[in-house]
Amino acid sequence: MKNQMSTDIQDYITRSSLADWEPLIEQGTHYIGVFVKSLRFDQTQQRSTTILLKFEPGSSYPYHNHPAGEELFVLSGSVTIETALLQAGDYLYTPPSFKHEVSSVSGCNLLLVVPEEVEKIPR
Length: 123
What we know:
Layout: E1 22-26, E2 29-42, E3 47-55, E4 59-66, E5 70-81, E6 84-87, E7 91-94, E8 98-104, E9 108-113, E10 119-120
Antiparallel strand pairs: 1-2, 2-3, 3-9, 4-8, 4-10, 5-6, 5-7, 5-8, 5-9
């Protein structure tokens, strides 16, 4: 029997204001000052593909690759992606296999769509 898609819109709403910010921990590494909220969890991949990220002032995320690209929207604050400073309202599309690091001097909140898991790259 095929799984039937729900027709109840309530099944597709994530109330992010009701969720707690969780520390970002990936493969045993805790990224101090970076927090995450899952907006969409992909059951097939067993990972969140749409997330909110919060960077406290002075926090960062290391150099990494996006095998399937990434979409990023700055909700508040400012963030540096490689050498580009993005501020609230800015949108960034990174194509597949695009590599960069992320840091925020003042802190920020970001919306990200990440179709595939990122790959950390030593520098």
